[in-house]
């Protein structure tokens, strides 16, 4: 049985001088204390204390061995997205970050799968960066769940998602830049309340906005943190769709009929919640996600899956690894040729 973690972050060694690729103030960057600890920095401000698994591949691999994790899909820390920058500058930044992630994963390419990031604020540039990254070895794309006031049902963001489908690149969606933070002061409430709400907003926006109707079914899309509050409130959305024409104006089918169009990770931390998530999504649409190496992640990878009631051995095997192996399977030969051709076109 393979154990494949689809939700694991990285912050490669990036100096403040390199951070100036994105911002004149030099942000974000990593301050390595040299003792196994460090600090994520935003310009001159301390953002979050971190440990070396975030930037040191040998430590990550040792942690994976200790936890029984065979493979990780490695994605940038959302602080690094750069969505507020000028698109050309953000493209240079993403190229730098993506190259560092590929370099990081080269420590063991069979176990560490690099995911790229893109300047999602500008669709054409984001498509170009994703194409370059795919040609350079990226196995997927990591995006935030919104850009400013534009959610994933935005036409231009949907155009980028269609481009990923054409390249055969899976897309991992992570909540970030949470709503109403002025009302969620203290106790990490933006992470505890805002993140689930952001993810539910993204999923329902795509469903009710008709986005899944317009996107190709070949798109491989996964939402982190178990899809947020989506599964618990899906019945409420279906009820609204059936009873109010304003809800179903752009969606020919109720929300529950679109669950086959995306995956979620298992980071819900309660076997009862995971049981509901599996019932809503189907066993084949849930994948192990830990949020490594952050302290709000699952400290014993797969513990919630193993404790989830009503799962068969085959179910557990699928959620722990089999589903992710299929989700991140390399692009077909035809898709690989398409990536190469697109990269050649960008270079010309």
Provide a descriptive summary of the structure in words.
It is a single chain. With 348 residues, the chain is an alpha/beta fold. It has one domain (4-13, 55-347): Metal-dependent hydrolases (TIM Barrel). 41% of the residues lie in helices and 16% in strands. The chain has helices spanning 16-19, 57-67, 87-105, 123-135, 155-167, 189-208, 211-214, 230-243, 271-281, 303-307, 313-327, 333-347; strands at residues 4-10, 29-32, 37-42, 45-51, 71-76, 112-116, 140-144, 146-147, 150-151, 171-174, 221-223, 263-265, 286-287. Strands 1-5-6-7-10-11-12-13 form an 8-stranded parallel sheet. A 3-stranded antiparallel sheet has the order 2-3-4. A hairpin with a 4-residue loop joins β2 (29-32) and β3 (37-42). α3 (87-105) runs parallel beside α4 (123-135), α4 (123-135) packs parallel to α5 (155-167) and α4 (123-135) crosses α12 (333-347). The longest helix has 20 residues, at 189-208. The N and C termini lie far apart (45 Å). The model is unreliable at 333-348 (pLDDT under 50).
Please tell me what the overall shape is.
globular
Order of helices and strands: EHEEEHEHEHEEEHEHHEHEHEHHH
Number of strands: 13
Q: How does the major sheet shape up?
A: 8 strands, parallel
Poorly predicted runs are 333-348
Major sheet: arrangement of strands: 1-5-6-7-10-11-12-13
Helix proportion: 40-55%
**What is the structural class?**
alpha/beta
CATH architecture: Alpha-Beta Barrel
What's the mean pLDDT score?
93
- Roughly what fraction of the amino acids lie in strands? 15-25%
**Radius of gyration, in angstroms, nearest whole number:** 19 Å
Give the termini distance in whole angstroms: 45 Å
Q: CATH homologous superfamily? A: Metal-dependent hydrolases
How many domains? The number is: 1
Number of helices: 12
CATH class type: Alpha Beta
Q: What is the CATH third-level topology name?
A: TIM Barrel
Family: Belongs to the metallo-dependent hydrolases superfamily. ACMSD family.
Pathway: Secondary metabolite metabolism; quinolate metabolism
Enzyme class: lyase
EC number: 4.1.1.45
């Amino acid at each position: 049985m393979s154990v494949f973690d689809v939700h694991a972050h990285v912050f490669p060694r990036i100096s403040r001088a390199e951070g100036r690729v994105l911002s004149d103030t030099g942000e974000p960057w990593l301050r390595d204390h040299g003792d196994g600890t460090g600090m994520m920095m935003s310009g001159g401000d301390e953002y979050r204390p971190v440990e070396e698994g975030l930037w040191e591949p040998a430590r990550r691999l040792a942690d994976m061995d200790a936890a029984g994790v065979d493979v990780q899909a490695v994605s940038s820390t959302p602080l690094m997205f750069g969505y507020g920058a000028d698109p050309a500058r953000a493209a240079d930044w993403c190229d730098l970050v993506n190259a560092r992630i590929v370099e990081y994963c080269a420590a063991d390419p069979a176990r560490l799968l690099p995911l790229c990031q893109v300047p999602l604020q500008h669709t054409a540039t984001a498509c170009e960066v994703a194409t370059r990254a795919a040609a350079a070895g990226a196995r997927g794309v990591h995006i935030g769940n919104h850009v400013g006031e534009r959610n994933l049902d935005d036409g231009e963001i949907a155009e980028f998602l269609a481009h990923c489908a054409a390249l055969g690149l899976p897309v991992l969606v992570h909540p970030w830049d949470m709503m109403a933070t002025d009302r969620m002061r203290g106790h990490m409430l933006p992470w505890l309340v805002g993140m689930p709400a952001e993810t539910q907003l993204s999923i329902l926006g795509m469903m009710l906005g008709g986005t899944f109707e317009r996107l190709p079914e070949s798109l491989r899309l996964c939402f982190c943190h178990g899809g947020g509050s989506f599964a618990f409130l899906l019945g409420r959305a279906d009820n609204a769709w059936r009873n109010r024409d304003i809800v179903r104006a752009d969606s020919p089918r109720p929300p529950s009929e679109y669950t086959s169009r995306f995956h979620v990770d298992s980071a819900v931390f309660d076997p009862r919640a995971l049981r509901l998530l599996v019932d809503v999504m189907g066993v084949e649409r849930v994948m192990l996600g830990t949020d490594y190496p952050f302290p709000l992640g699952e400290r014993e990878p797969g513990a919630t899956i193993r404790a989830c009631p009503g799962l068969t051995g085959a179910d557990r095997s699928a959620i722990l690894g089999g589903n992710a192996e299929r989700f991140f399977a390399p692009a077909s030969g035809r898709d690989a040729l398409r990536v190469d051709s697109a990269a050649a076109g960008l270079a010309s």
